Amino acid sequence: MSTNVYGGPGNKAYAVVGYLDALDPYTVLWEEYGWKFIEYPSGSKKKRAYLPGGASTKTLDNPPSETLK
User: Fold this and answer.
1) What is the DSSP code (8-state) at residue 64?
2) Which among 29, 28, 34 has a CA at the least distance from the CA of 10?
3) d(C-alpha 18, C-alpha 21), whole Å
4) What is the pLDDT of residues 32-64, one digit of tens each?
5) Backbone φ, ψ for residue 25 (5° rounding)
6) Cα torsion 35, 17, 68, 13: sign
């Protein structure tokens, strides 16, 4: 199962820019408005996008790496 990631914190105003599979690793850079801003590997490069499910305010200073749940 895969989850879409978006160009901004919202799925109506922002386009889908990629997706993550259930076991794909990612790092949370910060959380805002119920969305996580993440960095994830894409081939030999890293991409950044928004993933649904973050905190309502910016909270993370030194985020852990996570896998999609």
Assistant:
1) P
2) 34
3) 10
4) 989 999 999 988 999 999 999 876 544 444 455
5) -80, 150
6) positive
